[in-house]
Amino acid sequence: MFDKVYDVIVVGAGHAGSEAAASAANMGSSTLLITMNLQNIAQMSCNPAMGGIAKGQIVREIDALGGYSGIVSDTSAIQFKMLNKSKGPAMWSPRVQSDRMRFAEDWRMMLEGTPNLDFYQDMVSGLIMEGGKVSGVKTSLGIEVKAKSVVLTNGTFLNGLIHIGDKNFGGGRAGERAATGITEQLVDLGFQSGRMKTGTPPRVDGRSLDYSKMSEQPGDEVPEKFSYSNITKPLTKQRSCYMTYTSTLVHDLLREGFDRSPMFNGRIKSLGPRYCPSIEDKINRFADKDRHQLFIEPEGWNTCEVYVNGFSTSLPEDVQFKALRSVVGFEKVKFFRPGYAIEYDYFPPTQLKHTLETKLVEGLYFAGQINGTTGYEEAASQGLMAGINASLKVQEREEFVLKRNEAYIGVLIDDLITKGTEEPYRMFTSRAEYRTLLRQDNADFRLTPKGYEIGLASKARLIRMEDKHNKSDKFVQFFKDLSVKADVINPILESKDSAVVNQSGKLFKVFARPNIEMDDVRKIEEVEQYISENDLDREIIEQTEIQVKYSGYIEKEKNNADKLTRLEDIKIPANYDYSQIKSMSFEAREKLRKIQPTSISQASRISGVSPNDISVLLVYMGR
Fold first, then answer.
1. Closest Cα to residue 407, out of 385, 380, 432?
2. Rounded to whole angstroms, what are the CA distances from 58 to 23, 240, 368, 380, 457?
3. Which DSSP letter does residue 571 get?
4. Planar angle of CA 413, 414, 420, nearest 5 degrees
């Protein structure tokens, strides 16, 4: 049936699998995407949204490299918000509310329009191995497909077990069967596996809700978009979300079901996401809280189905229903389906290289929840990187790795393979020590040249980025060159309660003051004239303001990043024998032997390896 050997086979078509297939195929590799149900490509299994704190930066990075998530997020958006606008630009994070059905449809249409990409519907039950290398996959129908590399993106399907109250049944998602066979084979090959848990809230009928009792949460007045390309446009109309709260009555009603809760009666033994806990976990851990926020999110433009964000639960259906009917605005709520928890297999990511290729099996890559992460964005970024590296390996080209000072994607992957994770990993801005450099507004500056170099980002994207870069650089220089007289600038300074000046000076210095904004300096005739004559758009104007106001912080962080790069340049030989270093702590030797860091910088980030251990290692390496 399959008479060709594919360059790349991608198993699973969630967010990780979709990006992996798209990147490999777009880089010229013959690619096969195998999934259990082709109708569920890029399904939004949980909340109908993309982006958010730190996650929005990841979507921008995927887009800058040439991935699809940013474009699909724009074409299927029903609301746009830039979060954390009251804070500095390093914290700004774009987020869209999505039309769930349109999101999946747009993803499928983009994949079907991608050259070099084939599709097949079946369950992959095992890998074909030849001499320590992967050489294809076997399906549940007994079909064998040969390939030079395989990317596993199994999500929550590996031996998935769904829990609702005291009931449980096999499944990878509501209404879909679990995937079996792969975990067992990988363990036989020497991989370590574990179990994790995630959950989802009930879906309800929006027609049964009383929105007049809730607080409306509209999108931004001037919405932006995710993609740096000119393929998409900002929204011209938006749908609102709403907010309401639980209460002590709701909490008491939920507690009545705790004895039937799989979380508390021992049925669920694995760890769930700490930063996205179930409602029963919240009221148990935060017993002093009288209420918790619930965000009521529409699932699309036209559907009446609603996602109850903040009410993730695996309590019995009757308890869920009774408690939710006691929430303000939900007095007459009708359920589409109850919430549930799901346990699934994952593989500790310390078993991977920075390319996401496994250390044990050549040509085999893991991406997404199989690595212990949670979230669409984290999964998509791993899929993108796994697809890129699988393609590069087949083409016998140099591997593609992003450093911690280059992208949130670099932070994510380095955290996973260096530190591992025992609970579902979620990205936060606080995880990125160079977040002032890794802003959502400059992902194209950072990554589009790299995407173009490996053959993923288009020439048109590169030209667009270079034009934006040149114009913003020239606008910054304009502020450095322009002198303004005291009588011109002082009225503006007085209106902002800022100290006046006594003589003429460069506008850059005044503009750099924290309380002086672009709208203020645009009152100066020469500034507005420059913007008009050079046809500067919102992106360039915003980029310029950030470069002026945060130049000191950016320069300081660049210097710190340069120090990191020097340590990254000190490579550790493969399979280095740490047992010879007796003056190093036993814990450090064991951790270094297990993780096999490729550089001194990575070694220094391993938990249990002290600065003294690094000093000893440098001595032994003759540094």
1. 432
2. 16, 24, 14, 9, 16
3. B
4. 85
Query: Confidence class of residue 426 from pLDDT cuts 50, 70 and 90?
Result: very high
Q: In this structure, what are the phi and psi dihedrals at residue 57, rounded to the nearest 5 degrees?
A: -60, -40
Strand boundaries in 157-202, DSSP class E: 161-164, 167-170, 194-200
Residue 174 contacts residue 37 (beta carbons within 8 Å):
no
pLDDT of 447 > 90? The answer is yes
Distance from the first to the final alpha carbon of the chain: 56
SS3 label, residue 55: helix
| Predicted TM-score of the model (pTM) | 0.94
Across 67-183, the runs of DSSP E, i.e. the strands, are 77-83, 93-98, 117-121, 124-130, 133-139, 144-152, 161-164, 167-170
Spatial separation of the C-alpha atoms in residues 97 and 299, rounded to whole Å: 8
Mean pLDDT of the chain: 93
Look up tokens 């630009």; give the residue.
89
CA pair distance 618, 443, nearest whole angstrom: 34
- Is 70 exceeded by the pLDDT of residue 79? yes
Question: What torsion, rounded to 10 degrees, do the Cα atoms 359, 361, 367, 372 define?
Answer: -60
Residue 276, amino acid? C
CA 540, CA 473: separation in Å to the nearest integer?
9
Closest CA to 62 of 91, 115, 26: 26
How far apart are alpha carbons 387 and 426 in whole angstroms? 21
Q: How far is C-alpha 225 from the geometric centre of its chain's CA atoms?
A: 16
| 3-class DSSP state of 81 | strand
Which SS3 state, helix, strand or coil, does residue 294 take? Answer: strand
Strands 167-170 and 6-11: unpaired
In the chain, pLDDT over 70 holds for what percent of residues?
100
| Alpha-carbon distances, residue 213 vs 203, 217, 365, 398 (angstroms) | 19, 13, 49, 58
Residue 220 phi, psi (nearest 5):
-65, 145
